[in-house]
Design brief:
CATH class of the largest domain: Mainly Alpha
Number of strands: 0
CATH architecture of the largest domain: Orthogonal Bundle
Strand content: under 5%
Structural class: mainly alpha
Order of helices and strands: HHHHHHHHH
Shape: globular
Radius of gyration: 18 Å
Largest sheet: none
Helix content: 55-70%
CATH superfamily of the largest domain: RNA polymerase sigma factor, region 2, helix turn helix motif
Number of helices: 9
Distance between the termini: 17 Å
CATH topology of the largest domain: Rna Polymerase Sigma Factor, Chain: A
Length: about 200
């Protein structure tokens, strides 16, 4: 999924999810397992990036699907399932972070994609390691709300409208948070990061 591309217009995926939801509601547990397998990695990554705790992320993943299963009868099938599931996972992650008073974003997977498809030289590996640390510090320096928007937009590829739904806030608020986050990251990282469309760290 490319940054900001989202899935709102992906009718084929929505139809597939709607079919799996309908089958689940009819008692087909294989269909629910298919939903779990389809979205578990994305939801786990989101929870892990917020909590930076493997155990917490796994618990959040399991709790997310338990809650999803309980609320499926009331699900509006016009809503993309991915966004609905992430809304649950984000709320659970917020609660966990609030309890622990801890926030730390891991962007290893994003940074690794900067050099995807090539075998780095020792010098390149060192540069990537240094860049990874710089990006981590820059993201960590953002306010909590801006960090979450950056995570959902660039790591998970949700559109602004989907993020507004996930976070249950106005679209204008999401745009504002992302705009200010971009300015801060540009100021901190500058030309050292490839800010080109489709890049793993496209914040331009």
């Amino acid at each position: 999924m490319t940054p900001g591309a989202g899935v709102i217009l992906d009718t084929s995926e929505m139809n597939e999810d709607a079919d799996l939801v309908s089958r689940t509601l009819a008692g087909d547990l294989d269909a629910f397992e298919a939903l779990y397998n389809k979205y578990k990695r994305s939801l786990y990554r989101t929870a892990l990036a917020i909590t930076e705790d493997d155990g917490a992320a796994d618990e959040i993943l399991q709790d997310c699907f338990l809650r999803a299963y309980a609320h499926l009868p009331r699900l509006d099938l016009s809503t993309p399932l991915a966004a609905w599931l992430h809304r649950i996972a984000i709320n659970l992650s917020y609660n966990r972070v609030a309890q622990r008073r801890l926030w730390s974003v891991s962007l290893d997977q994003i940074i690794d994609r900067l050099g995807a498809g090539s075998i780095p030289s020792p010098e390149q590996a060192l540069e990537r390691s240094e860049l990874r640390e710089r990006v981590r510090r820059a993201i960590h320096a953002l306010g909590f709300e801006q960090r979450v928007v950056v995570l959902l937009y660039y790591l998970q590829g949700f559109s602004l409208a989907e993020i507004a739904y996930i976070l249950d806030c106005p679209l204008g608020t999401v745009k504002s948070r992302l705009h200010h986050a971009r300015r801060k990251l540009r100021r901190e990282l500058g030309a050292d990061v490839a800010w080109t469309p489709g890049a793993a760290l496209d914040l331009g």
